[in-house]
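Table S2 (continued). Query chain:
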Amino acid sequence: MNRADASPWIETLVESHDEVLELWIGNESKLLPQRGLASAAEIRDQCSALLCVMIEALQKSNSFDADDAAWAPVRAHLAEVSTRQARRGFSAMETATFVFSIKAPLVAHARRLIGDMSSLSALIRSLSLLIDSLGLHTAETYGRSRDEIVRRQQLELLELSTPVIQLWPRVLALPLIGTLDSSRAQIAMENLLHKIVATGAIAVVIDITGVPAFDTLVAQHLLKTVAAARLLGAKCVISGMRPYTAQTIVDLGIDLSQVVTKSTLRDAFVVALNWARRAAMTQ
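Corresponding output:
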Protein backbone atom coordinates (compact mmCIF):
# COMPACT_ATOMS: atom_id res chain seq x y z
CA MET A 1 0.00 0.00 0.00
CA ASN A 2 1.22 3.50 -0.79
CA ARG A 3 2.31 5.38 2.32
CA ALA A 4 0.37 8.48 1.29
CA ASP A 5 -2.84 6.46 1.01
CA ALA A 6 -2.38 5.31 4.60
CA SER A 7 -1.83 8.81 6.02
CA PRO A 8 -5.44 9.33 7.20
CA TRP A 9 -5.36 6.01 9.05
CA ILE A 10 -1.98 6.81 10.62
CA GLU A 11 -3.26 10.16 11.90
CA THR A 12 -6.28 8.48 13.51
CA LEU A 13 -3.91 5.90 14.97
CA VAL A 14 -2.10 8.67 16.83
CA GLU A 15 -5.34 9.79 18.41
CA SER A 16 -6.42 6.21 19.12
CA HIS A 17 -3.18 5.20 20.85
CA ASP A 18 -4.87 4.28 24.15
CA GLU A 19 -7.63 2.33 22.44
CA VAL A 20 -5.19 0.26 20.39
CA LEU A 21 -3.01 -0.25 23.47
CA GLU A 22 -5.93 -1.68 25.46
CA LEU A 23 -6.75 -4.08 22.63
CA TRP A 24 -3.15 -5.21 22.46
CA ILE A 25 -2.71 -5.61 26.22
CA GLY A 26 -5.86 -7.69 26.33
CA ASN A 27 -4.23 -10.20 24.00
CA GLU A 28 -0.67 -9.94 25.22
CA SER A 29 -1.51 -10.35 28.90
CA LYS A 30 -2.83 -13.82 28.13
CA LEU A 31 0.56 -14.91 26.83
CA LEU A 32 3.19 -13.88 29.36
CA PRO A 33 2.16 -13.79 33.04
CA GLN A 34 1.51 -17.52 33.42
CA ARG A 35 5.15 -18.24 34.23
CA GLY A 36 5.49 -15.15 36.39
CA LEU A 37 8.10 -13.56 34.14
CA ALA A 38 6.24 -10.27 33.69
CA SER A 39 3.70 -8.31 35.70
CA ALA A 40 0.66 -6.60 34.23
CA ALA A 41 2.36 -3.22 34.69
CA GLU A 42 5.48 -4.40 32.88
CA ILE A 43 3.42 -5.73 29.99
CA ARG A 44 1.58 -2.42 29.70
CA ASP A 45 4.82 -0.39 29.72
CA GLN A 46 6.43 -2.69 27.18
CA CYS A 47 3.46 -2.58 24.83
CA SER A 48 3.06 1.18 25.17
CA ALA A 49 6.74 1.82 24.45
CA LEU A 50 6.74 -0.27 21.28
CA LEU A 51 3.45 1.19 20.07
CA CYS A 52 4.79 4.72 20.51
CA VAL A 53 7.97 4.11 18.51
CA MET A 54 5.98 2.31 15.79
CA ILE A 55 3.50 5.18 15.44
CA GLU A 56 6.38 7.63 15.26
CA ALA A 57 8.04 5.54 12.54
CA LEU A 58 4.77 5.33 10.61
CA GLN A 59 4.54 9.12 10.66
CA LYS A 60 8.12 9.62 9.45
CA SER A 61 8.55 6.74 7.03
CA ASN A 62 7.70 6.88 3.36
CA SER A 63 7.01 3.15 3.26
CA PHE A 64 6.06 0.09 5.27
CA ASP A 65 9.54 -1.32 4.72
CA ALA A 66 11.10 -2.31 8.07
CA ASP A 67 14.56 -1.76 6.57
CA ASP A 68 13.80 1.90 5.87
CA ALA A 69 15.90 4.38 7.87
CA ALA A 70 12.82 5.71 9.61
CA TRP A 71 12.31 2.30 11.20
CA ALA A 72 15.81 2.18 12.72
CA PRO A 73 14.56 3.37 16.15
CA VAL A 74 11.99 0.54 16.12
CA ARG A 75 14.63 -2.04 15.26
CA ALA A 76 16.89 -0.66 17.99
CA HIS A 77 14.04 -0.75 20.50
CA LEU A 78 13.22 -4.36 19.59
CA ALA A 79 16.89 -5.29 19.96
CA GLU A 80 16.79 -3.99 23.53
CA VAL A 81 13.57 -5.89 24.18
CA SER A 82 15.07 -9.10 22.79
CA THR A 83 18.17 -8.81 24.96
CA ARG A 84 16.11 -8.08 28.06
CA GLN A 85 13.74 -10.97 27.37
CA ALA A 86 16.62 -13.38 26.83
CA ARG A 87 18.20 -12.39 30.15
CA ARG A 88 14.92 -12.81 32.01
CA GLY A 89 14.31 -16.30 30.65
CA PHE A 90 11.63 -15.69 28.00
CA SER A 91 11.70 -18.14 25.12
CA ALA A 92 12.33 -17.12 21.52
CA MET A 93 8.70 -17.86 20.70
CA GLU A 94 7.40 -15.66 23.52
CA THR A 95 9.68 -12.83 22.48
CA ALA A 96 8.67 -12.99 18.82
CA THR A 97 5.00 -13.44 19.71
CA PHE A 98 5.12 -10.16 21.62
CA VAL A 99 5.85 -8.39 18.31
CA PHE A 100 3.48 -10.45 16.16
CA SER A 101 0.63 -9.86 18.62
CA ILE A 102 0.47 -6.15 17.75
CA LYS A 103 -0.88 -7.08 14.32
CA ALA A 104 -4.38 -7.98 15.56
CA PRO A 105 -5.19 -4.65 17.31
CA LEU A 106 -3.79 -2.61 14.41
CA VAL A 107 -5.88 -4.58 11.92
CA ALA A 108 -8.97 -4.29 14.14
CA HIS A 109 -8.46 -0.54 14.32
CA ALA A 110 -8.08 -0.33 10.54
CA ARG A 111 -11.26 -2.36 9.95
CA ARG A 112 -13.29 0.13 11.99
CA LEU A 113 -11.99 3.17 10.12
CA ILE A 114 -11.46 2.05 6.52
CA GLY A 115 -14.63 1.19 4.62
CA ASP A 116 -13.11 0.60 1.20
CA MET A 117 -12.23 -3.10 1.04
CA SER A 118 -9.51 -2.61 -1.55
CA SER A 119 -7.72 -0.03 0.60
CA LEU A 120 -8.26 -2.11 3.74
CA SER A 121 -6.82 -5.23 2.12
CA ALA A 122 -3.78 -3.32 0.89
CA LEU A 123 -3.19 -1.83 4.34
CA ILE A 124 -3.56 -5.19 6.09
CA ARG A 125 -1.12 -6.77 3.64
CA SER A 126 1.44 -3.97 4.19
CA LEU A 127 1.05 -4.17 7.98
CA SER A 128 1.45 -7.94 7.92
CA LEU A 129 4.67 -7.78 5.92
CA LEU A 130 5.99 -5.01 8.16
CA ILE A 131 5.24 -6.75 11.44
CA ASP A 132 6.46 -10.12 10.15
CA SER A 133 9.76 -8.47 9.23
CA LEU A 134 10.04 -6.84 12.65
CA GLY A 135 9.19 -10.14 14.32
CA LEU A 136 11.94 -11.95 12.42
CA HIS A 137 14.38 -9.19 13.32
CA THR A 138 13.40 -9.66 16.96
CA ALA A 139 13.90 -13.42 16.78
CA GLU A 140 17.33 -13.03 15.20
CA THR A 141 18.40 -10.51 17.82
CA TYR A 142 17.09 -12.78 20.56
CA GLY A 143 19.15 -15.65 19.15
CA ARG A 144 22.35 -13.59 19.19
CA SER A 145 21.62 -12.34 22.71
CA ARG A 146 20.92 -15.85 23.94
CA ASP A 147 24.13 -17.17 22.38
CA GLU A 148 26.10 -14.41 24.10
CA ILE A 149 24.46 -15.19 27.44
CA VAL A 150 25.28 -18.89 27.07
CA ARG A 151 28.87 -18.09 26.08
CA ARG A 152 29.30 -15.79 29.08
CA GLN A 153 27.79 -18.36 31.44
CA GLN A 154 30.16 -21.00 30.09
CA LEU A 155 33.11 -18.73 30.80
CA GLU A 156 31.81 -18.05 34.29
CA LEU A 157 31.43 -21.76 34.94
CA LEU A 158 34.94 -22.37 33.68
CA GLU A 159 36.28 -19.72 36.03
CA LEU A 160 34.34 -21.21 38.94
CA SER A 161 35.71 -24.65 38.10
CA THR A 162 39.31 -23.39 38.33
CA PRO A 163 39.47 -21.41 41.61
CA VAL A 164 42.77 -20.17 43.00
CA ILE A 165 42.86 -20.44 46.79
CA GLN A 166 45.26 -18.77 49.20
CA LEU A 167 46.38 -21.45 51.69
CA TRP A 168 48.94 -19.36 53.54
CA PRO A 169 50.61 -15.98 53.13
CA ARG A 170 52.34 -16.19 49.73
CA VAL A 171 51.16 -19.79 49.22
CA LEU A 172 48.43 -20.54 46.67
CA ALA A 173 46.55 -23.67 45.64
CA LEU A 174 45.00 -24.48 42.28
CA PRO A 175 42.74 -27.54 42.60
CA LEU A 176 41.84 -29.03 39.24
CA ILE A 177 38.73 -31.20 38.98
CA GLY A 178 37.36 -32.85 35.85
CA THR A 179 38.68 -32.92 32.30
CA LEU A 180 41.37 -30.35 31.65
CA ASP A 181 40.85 -29.14 28.09
CA SER A 182 42.51 -26.18 26.38
CA SER A 183 39.85 -23.66 27.45
CA ARG A 184 39.95 -24.63 31.12
CA ALA A 185 43.73 -24.81 31.09
CA GLN A 186 44.00 -21.30 29.64
CA ILE A 187 41.58 -19.84 32.20
CA ALA A 188 43.32 -21.71 35.04
CA MET A 189 46.68 -20.33 33.98
CA GLU A 190 45.39 -16.77 33.66
CA ASN A 191 43.65 -16.90 37.05
CA LEU A 192 46.73 -18.31 38.70
CA LEU A 193 49.12 -15.79 37.18
CA HIS A 194 46.88 -12.86 38.14
CA LYS A 195 46.64 -14.22 41.70
CA ILE A 196 50.41 -14.66 41.93
CA VAL A 197 50.93 -11.03 40.99
CA ALA A 198 48.14 -9.81 43.29
CA THR A 199 49.36 -11.72 46.37
CA GLY A 200 53.09 -11.83 45.74
CA ALA A 201 52.97 -15.62 46.10
CA ILE A 202 56.20 -17.58 45.80
CA ALA A 203 54.74 -21.09 46.16
CA VAL A 204 51.85 -22.76 44.34
CA VAL A 205 50.27 -26.16 44.91
CA ILE A 206 48.60 -27.55 41.78
CA ASP A 207 46.38 -30.45 42.84
CA ILE A 208 45.36 -32.92 40.11
CA THR A 209 43.64 -35.44 42.37
CA GLY A 210 40.31 -34.71 40.68
CA VAL A 211 41.61 -35.00 37.10
CA PRO A 212 40.25 -38.34 35.84
CA ALA A 213 42.56 -38.78 32.86
CA PHE A 214 46.19 -37.71 32.65
CA ASP A 215 47.55 -37.58 29.13
CA THR A 216 50.07 -35.65 27.05
CA LEU A 217 47.72 -32.69 26.64
CA VAL A 218 47.17 -32.37 30.40
CA ALA A 219 50.90 -32.66 30.99
CA GLN A 220 51.64 -29.91 28.47
CA HIS A 221 49.12 -27.62 30.13
CA LEU A 222 50.68 -28.25 33.53
CA LEU A 223 54.20 -27.66 32.26
CA LYS A 224 53.16 -24.38 30.65
CA THR A 225 51.48 -23.26 33.87
CA VAL A 226 54.55 -24.18 35.94
CA ALA A 227 56.85 -22.34 33.52
CA ALA A 228 54.66 -19.23 33.47
CA ALA A 229 54.46 -19.19 37.27
CA ARG A 230 58.24 -19.54 37.49
CA LEU A 231 58.67 -16.45 35.30
CA LEU A 232 56.69 -14.53 37.93
CA GLY A 233 58.90 -15.83 40.73
CA ALA A 234 56.66 -18.62 42.04
CA LYS A 235 57.60 -22.29 42.41
CA CYS A 236 55.02 -24.98 41.75
CA VAL A 237 54.51 -28.38 43.32
CA ILE A 238 52.02 -30.82 41.80
CA SER A 239 50.00 -32.99 44.16
CA GLY A 240 47.64 -35.86 43.53
CA MET A 241 50.11 -38.12 41.77
CA ARG A 242 48.67 -41.60 42.03
CA PRO A 243 50.24 -44.89 40.90
CA TYR A 244 48.35 -45.14 37.62
CA THR A 245 49.06 -41.46 36.92
CA ALA A 246 52.78 -42.00 37.43
CA GLN A 247 52.69 -45.09 35.20
CA THR A 248 50.85 -43.16 32.49
CA ILE A 249 53.46 -40.38 32.59
CA VAL A 250 56.26 -42.92 32.19
CA ASP A 251 54.48 -44.74 29.37
CA LEU A 252 53.87 -41.48 27.50
CA GLY A 253 57.48 -40.42 27.94
CA ILE A 254 56.49 -37.13 29.57
CA ASP A 255 59.39 -35.39 31.29
CA LEU A 256 58.33 -33.96 34.65
CA SER A 257 61.80 -34.22 36.13
CA GLN A 258 62.01 -30.45 36.57
CA VAL A 259 58.71 -30.33 38.46
CA VAL A 260 58.30 -31.24 42.13
CA THR A 261 55.48 -33.78 42.56
CA LYS A 262 53.81 -35.29 45.62
CA SER A 263 51.17 -37.94 46.04
CA THR A 264 49.04 -36.04 48.54
CA LEU A 265 47.93 -32.46 48.99
CA ARG A 266 49.26 -32.51 52.54
CA ASP A 267 52.79 -33.38 51.42
CA ALA A 268 52.66 -30.74 48.67
CA PHE A 269 51.49 -28.10 51.14
CA VAL A 270 54.45 -28.91 53.42
CA VAL A 271 56.83 -28.39 50.50
CA ALA A 272 55.18 -25.10 49.54
CA LEU A 273 55.18 -23.92 53.15
CA ASN A 274 58.91 -24.62 53.47
CA TRP A 275 59.57 -22.61 50.30
CA ALA A 276 57.59 -19.70 51.71
CA ARG A 277 59.41 -19.85 55.05
CA ARG A 278 62.84 -19.97 53.44
CA ALA A 279 61.93 -17.03 51.24
CA ALA A 280 60.77 -15.06 54.28
CA MET A 281 64.04 -15.81 56.12
CA THR A 282 66.18 -14.55 53.24
CA GLN A 283 64.32 -11.25 52.94
